[in-house]
Specification:
The protein has a single domain (2-126), classed as Glutaredoxin, CATH 3.40.30. It is 43% helix and 13% strand. It contains seven helices and four strands, in the order E-H-E-H-H-H-H-E-E-H-H. It has a four-stranded mixed sheet, covered by helices on one side.
Amino acid sequence: MITIYTKGSCLSSRNVRKWLENHHILFKEVNLTTQTISKEEFMELLRFTQFGTQELLSRNSNIYRKLSKRYNFQELTLSELILVVQAYPSLLRKPIVFDGKRLQVGYNEDEMRKFIPRLYRKVNLMS
């Protein structure tokens, strides 16, 4: 099952949701505006990144800049960082698409194709 971590007002989040619906792919949505990401979920996402937390954190966001005055993100322990992310979920880039094997941060239609089930891709290629 695909899980998408979104923010309701985010255009990229809406695009991911629409793309999955158009391809008849079931997904679970975690709206980070109203739901908190668990420590376990964050750790699982982190395992699938190439570049660690920098891939998941929105370092260009206003909230990151504001919190950078209070926290040195480079010196936070992972447990401390998770607590900060849980308190300020807008620190995370959105959307995050994860199926237990593949992770995608942000919306890119070409890269979304990797979430189409293999059997579905084979059938479409054969027709």
